[in-house]
Amino acid sequence: MPPIDRASPGRDGTAPPGWPEQVRPPGVPDWERTAVAWLYDLVPPEYRSHEVLRRYPVLLARFAGDHVAAGLEAARAGWRTVRVELADQLPPEAMEAAVAAYEREGARLASAARGVELVGGALRGERWVPRL
């Protein structure tokens, strides 16, 4: 799905900073469908088999938030420990690449966590109002 135009018309058509590009802004037509699709992209495929998650997107957002938070903690732990635990098994260039990969993954997951927080809030009826 292409990035969503944040200025697209709708009830309000705006989204807060950190809103995922793959999700239409809250209030525009079909935004909930794009939110659910994005949330499912964040979790293991097995989550699609749970009827309760398909029926209640707010619960799906909760599950996605927990899953992303666990991944973020794992990336942070890996970043902290990889140099010590694998120092004897990896050449320096592989170690630097591993640290860089942990940093990129941590940034991606931190962004996803912020997005899940925002999308979950919107699914619960919270509305963002831009400040001047």
Describe this structure in words.
This protein is mostly helical and 132 residues long. The protein has one domain. Helices cover 59% and strands 0% of the residues. The chain is built from 4 helices and no strands. Helix 1 runs antiparallel to helix 4 and helix 3 runs antiparallel to helix 4. The longest helix has 32 residues. It starts with 30 loop residues before the first helix and ends in a 9-residue tail after the last helix. The N terminus is likely disordered.
Taken as a percent bin, the fraction of beta residues is under 5%
Structural class, judged by helices and strands? Answer: mainly alpha
The SSE order reads HHHH
* Helical content class: 55-70%
Query: How would you describe the shape?
Result: elongated
Mean pLDDT: 90
Characteristics:
mainly alpha, 4 helices, elongated, 132 residues, disordered N terminus
How are the secondary structure elements laid out?
Elements: H1 31-42, H2 51-55, H3 57-85, H4 92-123
